[in-house]
Amino acid sequence: MSEPTINEKVQQLIGKLPPEFKHIAEKYGPIVVQWGKDELWAWIELLSHNPTAAYEQLVNSLPESSLPAEWASHIEAMADLNISSSAKVAVMKEAGSAIAGVVLRMALAVVGF
Predict the structure, then answer these.
(1) Is residue 78 part of a domain?
(2) How many domains does the chain have?
(3) N or C terminus of the chain: which is more exposed, having fewer CB within 10 Å?
């Protein structure tokens, strides 16, 4: 019996994924498999620092020429959502800090400091 090909191994791995992730792996898996170790590591690093740019790079790697143009608006929307989320997180941190300060003052007042 011969060793399975890379494509067969990828299909086996995709078969083990939950159904909601299979379509993503089927679309992007072949591209990622073609990348070398250094290119894949560089993309992972980019993903950790700038997810929007990483997704844009991945979409631009797709063979369908119309897809990058179609996804441009989606990438811009993702960037807007990231900015919006960052602002919300900052407000939540500020509110949490204010609440913690009030609780600390109450605790100190009860203890007598």
Answers:
(1) yes
(2) 1
(3) N
